[in-house]
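Renewal narrative, Specific Aim 1. Our central claim is that a sequence can be written position by position from structural information alone. The example that follows is taken directly from our test logs and has not been curated for this report. It begins with the structure tokens describing the chain, in the order in which they were read.
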């Protein structure tokens, strides 16, 4: 195994796992489960940022053709979405985890639609999934495959990648809007009348 592939493999694994956890967050209908998964997501996100920044920093400090230099060069594409993760996603995931903790007093407490809408926000899932997606070409190149070296492959690959990112972004936005609409929907009058707090 190439030495820089051994460096890139755990980074890609962490980012792809974080993207998968983020994608499933809004589907959880119990506050306790949502809090637990948000904690996992926060841990994976911080681990991904630490590993990525560590490799990029080692690449800047190293000179020549060391494995750290090759791994850092392969992560150039993932650096921008990782910066978005550091600037936006970490704060939102921490707020989501803290908000879910307030509702997770019992295992069967339902997760409010507002909390699930926050979990579906595009700035949580999209940057994580884009970062994970952009580590895949780095892994393919580091594995010795000449897929992207062939003429006429780079352009279509960029186009397909852009379309995938656009589709993922639209999906996140639609899901967030649907859950936010449910959170804003007023409670039916019959339910308010049946409530013990209704006066």
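The sequence written for that structure reads:
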């Amino acid at each position: 195994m190439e030495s820089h592939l051994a460096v890139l493999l755990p980074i890609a694994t962490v980012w792809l796992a974080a993207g998968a956890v983020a994608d499933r967050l809004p589907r959880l209908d119990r506050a306790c489960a949502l809090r637990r998964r948000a904690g996992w997501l926060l841990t994976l996100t911080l681990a991904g940022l630490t590993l990525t920044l560590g490799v990029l920093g080692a690449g800047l400090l190293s000179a020549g053709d060391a494995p750290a230099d090759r791994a850092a060069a392969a992560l150039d594409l993932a650096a921008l979405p990782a910066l978005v993760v550091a600037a936006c996603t970490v704060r939102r995931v921490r707020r989501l985890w803290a908000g879910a903790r307030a509702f997770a007093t019992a295992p069967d407490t339902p997760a409010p639609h507002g909390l699930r809408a926050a979990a579906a926000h595009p700035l949580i899932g999209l940057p994580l999934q884009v970062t994970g997606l952009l580590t895949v070409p780095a892994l393919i190149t580091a594995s010795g495959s000449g897929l992207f070296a062939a003429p006429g492959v780079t352009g279509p690959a960029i186009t397909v990648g852009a379309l995938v990112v656009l589709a993922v972004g639209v999906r996140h936005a639609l899901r967030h809007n649907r859950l936010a609409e449910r959170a804003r929907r007023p409670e039916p009058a019959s339910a308010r009348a049946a409530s013990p707090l209704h006066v």
